[in-house]
Amino acid sequence: MQGNTACAEGALAAGCRFFGGYPITPSTEIAEHMALKLPKLGGVFIQMEDEIAGIAAVIGASWTGMRAMTATSGPGFSLMMENIGFAAMTETPCVLVNIQRGGPSTGQPTMSAQADMFQCRFGSHGDYSIIALSPASVQEMYELTVKAFNLADRFRVPAFLMADEIIGHMRERIEIPDNVPRDERKLLLKGVLPFHADEDLVPGFPQFGKGYGVHVTGLTHDERGYPCATSPSLHENLVKRLVAKVESARHEIADYRVTNPDAEVVFITYGSPARTVEQLVHDHPEAGIGHLRFRLVWPFPEKALEEFPHARVFIVPEQNMGQMAREIERHTCIPVVPLPRFGGALHTPGELKKAMEGWR
Amino acid sequence: MAMTYSDWLREDRLPHIYCAGCGNGTVINCTLNAVDRMGWSKEETVFVSGIGCSSRAPGYIVTDSLHTTHGRALAFATGIKMANPDLHVVVFTGDGDLAAIGGNHFIHACRRNIDLTVICMNNQIYGMTGGQGSPTTPRGALSTTTPYGSQEPAFDLCELASAAGANFVSRWTSYHVKELARAIHTGLQIPGFSFIEALVQCPTNYGRRNKFRQVMDQIDYFKTHGILLQKIERLREEGKPIPDDAIVLGDFVHRNRTAMGVKK
User: Fold this and answer.
1) Cα Rg for chain A, rounded, in angstroms?
2) CA distances in angstroms from A173 to A39, A316, B138, listed in the order given
3) Which CATH number among 3.30.1640.10, 3.40.30.10, 3.40.190.10, 3.40.50.970 corresponds to the domain A3-169?
4) Do B83 and A60 touch (CB under 8 A)?
5) B13, B44, B80 member nearest A60 (Cβ)
6) pTM, 2 dp
7) CB pairs below 8 Å between A and B: how many?
8) Tell me: the pLDDT tens digits for B102-129?
9) Is B12 domain-assigned?
10) Is the ipTM of this complex over 0.95?
């Protein structure tokens, strides 16, 4: 199965019944598969007039209680940014898939990249937080899409599947489980203000059409949902909660894989570069090469770095100029070596081996 | 039993933000009147809006409502209506929201003929941000960004909606209250995309710059310059001149094209 198809199948298994989007290479197969399958399942596929409208329709659908998603790539992702901030501010669960391609601008539509990782985290204006997953196989395109829906519903945030073109267009054999785990959206209890949150910092969801009579606005709002855009303390408390509800859970929801925890030289990866590192580890069992592979990238679980107590260096091969390397750097005292390889080609095992030299 | 506005308005949000003399309240009243006549329950009715003066209206109404991003109300409303066709979805928008930043969503929502009722409060200006020119600012009119008079021709929103495929298109003003409420009621009844344009006075940011010194001056202008579509057509047939500054009023289209998102 192709990675993009696996993503769509994972979404359907997770109960996604609404897709709103706009065709863009290299993500289009996801839309095509949803267009084929959703009507047969009683769901809705709608091709909107642009990506701004795609994410807008997804947010609208989500307020009716549906699991809803869109899929795009670089230019479309840029267009979605304002409404991603709207989803964060209004605490709308939704899933966005970005099959990353080379940028900036139109860049390389058919070539792989991982250069939208910071845009995913910080791309819309203002402070907020989101959740992002990064698959390194077709199997994970399926699994992590399911997971994205569960995390989006639990935390009421936009959740991102930050894949790259290589994983999106790769074909591998996968195992499709009979059932997938499902975390339901916590509904608002009657008598509770719609934007009031308890200890978990996530308010109950007042689904449209159920008599809640909720006003949802992108303006700074109080617990009633009413606009109040001029109170410094109200705004500060709201934004702090929007960030804290995700960031304070970062170690609980952390999802990564550790290989050779006693290693001194450790590669850190996510997405397709992980596969080259796996090849290197496999080819040199005697070298005891460390590998930390993140499946969940944002919120960044910095305690994962402590899994390698003897590490002398973290080498970070990425398909960008060193985005996650910069995030890792601020959480550790040992050297962090970015290993950029972009333009569409993957790192070769030889390049990675060369990067290790001098640290052994 | 006759409706009271307290049935539909969030009284704990009053006073509202609209300026003294603003025409938006008239349009909200006409809308609530029409919604009430439909017999729709609050639970099954959703108001959606974008950004601007018009778009603050849903925040004063007791139903579920979504106050979205600038220009995008129709795209959000499309998602709601397609996901749950049982909901009645009414969109409040303005000339800047709908015709400038949201122009593309407008024509595509008309083309899809989604079962929405869209009410555009056209004050011919960006009121919320202090009076900048909009796509419906008449040629020659003054605004903060057209200090020498607008050089651009204005959009005719009703012609646009008709050409793009809406099932029902009508234009009235804040002077023509009964006709406006009737048109909105018709729009709510019709499956498919209904577009009602309501010209409204904006004394704060349009009127005072454009020779309408009093609120009533602009309302009087709507009264004296509003000409029924049928009369315009008659003038045209008779080869008589049509005034340049005529505000064409009435139902532009009323048809039954196949619609999307209609309640089953």
Assistant:
1) 20
2) 26, 28, 63
3) 3.40.50.970
4) yes
5) B80
6) 0.98
7) 122
8) 999 999 999 999 999 999 999 999 999 9
9) no
10) yes
